[in-house]
Amino acid sequence: MTKPIGPLCNLDCKYCFYLEKENLYPQTSDWRMPDDVLESYIRQYIEAQNAEVISFAWQGGEPTLLGVDYFRKVVELEKRYANGKRIKNAFQTNGILLDDRWGEFLAENRFLVGLSIDGPEELHDRYRVDKGGQPTFARVMRGLGYLKKHGVEFNTLTVVERHNSQHPLEVYRFLKEVGSGFLQFIPIVERVATRSGADGLILISPASTQPAKVSTWSVEPRQYGKFLCAIFDEWIRHDVGRVYVQLFDVALETWLGLKASLCVFRETCGSAMAMEHNGDLYSCDHFVYRENKLGNIMEKPLESLVRSAQQVKFGLNKRDTLPRYCRECDVRFACHGECPKHRFIRTPDGEEGLNYLCAGYKLFFHHIDPYMRFMAGELLEHRPPANVMAWIREQEKAQQLPGRNDPCPCGSGLKYKKCCGHSV
Q1: b/e per residue 62-81 (b: at least 16 CB within 10 A)
Q2: Nearby residues of 145 by Cβ (< 8 Å), 6 or more positions away
Q3: C-alpha distances in Å from residue 109, one per residue of 63, 181, 194, 205, 249
Q4: Burial (CB count within 10 angstroms: exposed 0-12, middle 13-18, buried 19+), residue 8
Q5: Rg of the Cα trace of the chain?
Q6: Cα–Cα distance for residue pair 17/193, rounded to 1 Å
Q7: DSSP state of 1
Q8: 86 contact partners, CB below 8 Å, separation of at least 6
Q9: If residue 170 lies in a helix (H) or strand (E), which one and from where to where?
C-alpha cells in the first residue's frame, strides 16, 4: 500500500488509526511524495516482480489531495517502466473531492476505486466527519455520483465499529441500494494507551506493554460475528453471484483448500507492506511503528527490503506465535489467528496471543460451514455456487410443517392435526 501523501487527510474520522502517524515525521511540512522518490518506487516495484500484471495500491491519508495531475504523472511513469507488463491501479478514497475531472481520469485509466462509506447517513456520520466536525455523508454520495456518471469501477469499504455493527442488514441493504456490487467489511479494533509513547502514538501495537484499554469505538468480538452472520444469511439466500462480499469469497477459497487471497487469513503474512511518502517502508499498514520500519527505498533497493530477515521473521511470526488454543481449533484453516494486530488477549488457559475477535470469528465460521461445504462441492463439480440458493429453499421447504387444518402429507386423507400432527 503506497501512501503518496502519507497520513494527511481532509477528514477527521474519530476511529482513524493512521492520522496520528504524522507524529512519526515531526519535521515534515510537505507531505507530497517527491518526484524522485515516486519515480524510483514505480521503477523498482515493477522491476522486482516477475509477473505479467503489476498492481499498485494508492492509499493515504487521502490521495485525492494530490490532485489529478499528480496521478497523470503516476500513469506516465508506469508506462515508461512497464517493459511489456500490464499495470493495474487501485485507489482508496473518502470520495469528498471527486468531481468530473477525477471521474474522467479514473475511467480513462481504468482505476479500481475503493470508496469508504460506513452505511446510511446516520451510521456513516457518527464517526466519519471533516476537520470541522461536520458530517460527510452527502459529500460522499455526491462523489459516488461522479464515479457512476463516468462508469468508474468501484467497490465499497465499510469500517465495522461498535455502533454500526448493531445494524448489519441496514448497512448491507444500503450498500446494495447505492449500487455497490463488491463489499469489504473491515473490523476496527484499537487499543488506546493511557499516555503517548516516545513516538507520540496513542493507538499502540499489540506487542506494547504500555497500560491501555480497547477503544470505545472498537467493534465487540461476538457482535462482529453476529454482524457477519446476519449479512451472510441474507446474502446466501438472495445474492450469491450477484453481490460479492470479500470475506465470504475468501472463506470459500479456504473451504476449497486454497490459500486465502486476503492476508489476514493466511497462515503467514508479510506481503502487504506500507510505503510512506518519503520512501520509508514498513512491515504492514497496521504496523507503521518505528520498530517495524524496514528502511528507505532511496537508500536500499526495495527488493532487498522486502526480502530482508526482519520482514521474513515478521511474516513467519504470525504462524510461529499462534497459541495452542488456536492451533487446535477446528476452524484454524479458515482463520489462522487472523491479523497479528488483534492478538492481544489471553486464551482460556492463560496463554498470550489470542485474537481479540476470536469469539466472533468462531461464531461466524461455524455458522457458514454447511453452506460453504455445499458451494465448494458445486465448484468442484463445475457447477455454479449460486445453486446454494435453490438448495436452501428446498431444505427449508422440506422442514416446513403443514398447518393444523391442512391435509396430512402422509396421504391418509385426514387433517394434519388429526393424523401425523397429533403428537406435534
Answers
A1: bbbbbebebbeebbebbeeb
A2: none
A3: 16, 21, 46, 37, 27
A4: buried
A5: 24
A6: 13
A7: -
A8: 52, 53, 54
A9: helix 168-177
pLDDT at 401: 64
Neighbours of 360 (CB within 10 A): 25
Residues of the chain with pLDDT under 70: 401, 409-410, 416, 420-424
Global confidence as pTM: 0.92
Q: Are 48 and 82 in contact (CB under 8 A)?
A: no
- DSSP per position, 187-211: E---EEESS--TT--SB--TT--S-
- Please, which residues bridge with residue 58 across strands? 2, 91
Query: Average per-residue pLDDT in the chain?
Result: 95
User: Which residue, among 14, 11, 364, 362, has the nearest Cα to 218 in the 3D structure?
Assistant: 14
Neighbours of 299 (CB within 10 A): 9
What does 106-143 look like in DSSP terms, one character per residue?
A: HHHTTPEEEEE--SSHHHHTTT-BBTTS-B-HHHHHHH
pLDDT of residue 187: 98
The contacts of residue 183 (CB under 8 Å, 6+ apart) are: 155, 156, 158, 172, 175, 243, 244, 245, 246
Q: What is the rounded CA–CA span in Å between residue 47 and residue 311?
A: 20
33, 74 in Cβ contact below 8 A? no
Asked if residues 389 and 236 have their Cβ atoms less than 8 Å apart, the reply is yes
Please state the separation of Cα 66 from the chain's center in Å. 24
**239 tagged catalytic:** no
Q: What does DSSP say about strands 53-58 and 293-296: parallel, antiparallel, or unpaired?
A: unpaired
Residue 74, all three cell numbers: 503516476
The amino acid occupying position 108 is E
Under 8 Å CB-to-CB from 386, ≥6 apart: which residues?
Answer: 240, 241
Element holding 312 (H helix, E strand)? helix 309-320
CA-nearest of 168, 188, 178, 187 to 235 is 168
Set of cell numbers at residue 381: 463439480
Catalytic-role residue among 100, 285, 330, 349? 285
What contacts 266, CB < 8 A, 6 or more positions away? 259, 260, 318, 336
Q: For residue 422, what pLDDT is reported?
A: 62
343-346 and 352-355 beta bridge pairing:
antiparallel
Give the residue carrying C-alpha cell 393444523: 404
